[in-house]
Design goal:
This protein has helices at residues 4-12, 67-74, 76-83, 116-131, 145-156, 178-185, 193-201, 228-240, 306-313, 318-321, 345-359, and strands at 28-29, 41-45, 56-60, 86-91, 138-143, 163-167, 213-219, 249-252, 256-262, 268-275, 282-284, 299-301. It is of the alpha/beta class. The strands form 2 sheets. It has a 10-stranded mixed β-sheet with strand order 1-2-4-3-5-6-7-10-9-8, with helices on both faces. The two termini are 26 Å apart.
C-alpha cells in the first residue's frame, strides 16, 4: 500500500476535468425504470427499424463524461443503426460523484442490491420488457470508471449478461474506498488472482447463471489506470472461468496484441487487447471505412475501432454472424479498421506516432 499522503497528493493532481462538453444527443431519456437505489439517470437509443428480439448493449461512460458524449465519441449508436440492436446508457449524477464517475469502489454501489449496480439492472429489465429484447443477448461495456463498473455488473449480475468489454478499467472488488481506488489505479495493492476470483464468485450468491465472456482493452501508455490493471483483470476472470495461465492463442498486429483464453466449448471466454502507444481512453477509428466515432478527450484515434471489434466478437454484426461459431475474428477486407500484421517498419512507426499523439488528449 502506498503512503496515504502520496495517494491524497495524486487525488489532488488527478487529470479529470469537471464538466463534460455539450454535444448533440441521439439518445432518449429512459424514465420510470424502478426504485433506482443508486439515483442514476438513464438514456437509450433504438434504431428506427429495430426488430423484436433484438440484442441490447449497455454502455457506461467514464469520469467527466456523459452518455451523449460517449455515444458520439465511440460510435455505438451509428453501429446500432447498421447492425440492429438497442442501446442503454446509464448516466451518473454529480450529486453521487462530483467527477461523474460511477462509484465502482463504494461497497453499497457494487453489491447486487441497494446501489448503482441494482439501478442499472432495473434499467435493463425495463428495456427488455418494454422493447421485447432478447434476454439471452445482453452485453455491457464501458471506459475507466465505466469499465470498472462493467466488471461490477458482470460479477453481480452474471445472470443478465452474455459478455462484457472492459476498457481502461479495473478488477471487481479490489477497492472499497476512494483512497484504495486511487492506489489500485496506480497498480498498487492488488489481490492475488485466486482471491480476486473468489470475490467475483461471492458477488451473486445463490444465483443460477452462466459465466459471461470478458474482453479487456488497455493502452500500454495509460498513466491514469496503469496497464497492470488489465493483467489483473485477465487473471481474475480466467481464474473465475477455471482457465490456465497460458492463453489458447496470441495474435499480433502493427500496434496491438490480443491474447485469448478459450473454454472447453471453444468459446473465447477471456480475451485481452493491448494497444501499443495508447493512453487512457477508447480506441476508435473515425477515418476508417465505417466512419465510426469522433476523436476527443478519452476518445483516441489509433486506427482501431474497439466498438466495431467488440460488436463483432459478440456476434452482433452481419459479418460476425457469418463466421464460424467458435471463431469470431471478423472476416472483412483489410483496411484501417481491421487489425492486420505489420507490412513494414515505416507503417508501424506511422501508426505508433498517431497513437502517441492521440494519447496527448489526456489532460
Amino acid at each position: 500500500m502506498r503512503r496515504i499522503s502520496d495517494t491524497i497528493a495524486r487525488m489532488a493532481a488527478h487529470p479529470y476535468a469537471t464538466q463534460p462538453p455539450e454535444v448533440p444527443s441521439r439518445l432518449a431519456l429512459l424514465e420510470n425504470f424502478g426504485s433506482n437505489p443508486g439515483a442514476l439517470e438513464a438514456h437509450c437509443y433504438l434504431p428506427p427499424d429495430l426488430r423484436p428480439n433484438a440484442p441490447l448493449v449497455v454502455v457506461l461512460h467514464g469520469c467527466t463524461q456523459n452518455a451523449a458524449g460517449y455515444d458520439q465519441g465511440s460510435g455505438w449508436s451509428a453501429l446500432a443503426d447498421r447492425a440492429g440492436f438497442a442501446l442503454l446508457y446509464p448516466e451518473q449524477r454529480r450529486a453521487n460523484n462530483m467527477n461523474l464517475c460511477f462509484n465502482w469502489f463504494e461497497r453499497s454501489d457494487i453489491a447486487r442490491t441497494g446501489g448503482e449496480a441494482e439501478s442499472i439492472a432495473q434499467m435493463i429489465e425495463t428495456m427488455v420488457a418494454t422493447h421485447r429484447l432478447d434476454r439471452s443477448r445482453i452485453f455491457v461495456t464501458g471506459l475507466s470508471a465505466g469499465g470498472a463498473m462493467t466488471a461490477v455488473m458482470l460479477a453481480t449480475y452474471p445472470d443478465l449478461f452474455a459478455a462484457g468489454a472492459i476498457i481502461g478499467g479495473l478488477p471487481y472488488g479490489g477497492a472499497t474506498s476512494m483512497l484504495q481506488a486511487l492506489d489500485r489505479m496506480r497498480g498498487h495493492g492488488a489481490d492475488s488472482a485466486a482471491v480476486a476470483a473468489d470475490v467475483v464468485r461471492g458477488a451473486a450468491p445463490g444465483v443460477a447463471h452462466r459465466l459471461p465472456a470478458v474482453s479487456i482493452w488497455h493502452g500500454d501508455a495509460d498513466r491514469t489506470v496503469v496497464p497492470a490493471n488489465a493483467d489483473q483483470l485477465a487473471d481474475q476472470w480466467r481464474t473465475v472461468h477455471g482457465l490456465p495461465d497460458a492463453p489458447s492463442e496470441t495474435k499480433t498486429g502493427a500496434t496491438w496484441q490480443k491474447r485469448v483464453w478459450r473454454d472447453a466449448s471453444g468459446r473465447a471466454a477471456v480475451e485481452q487487447w493491448n494497444v501499443a502507444g495508447m493512453g487512457h481512453g477508447v480506441p476508435i477509428d473515425p477515418s476508417g471505412p465505417e466512419r465510426l466515432g469522433q476523436a476527443g478527450p478519452y476518445m483516441l484515434d489509433v486506427g482501431l475501432s474497439s466498438s466495431r471489434m467488440i460488436a463483432d466478437a459478440w456476434g452482433l454484426t452481419p459479418e460476425a454472424q457469418a463466421t464460424r461459431p467458435n471463431d469470431r475474428t471478423p472476416k472483412r477486407p483489410a483496411g484501417r479498421g481491421t487489425p492486420q500484421p505489420a507490412d513494414s517498419a515505416n507503417a508501424v512507426q506511422a501508426i505508433i506516432a498517431r497513437a502517441l499523439r492521440a494519447a496527448g488528449l489526456l489532460h
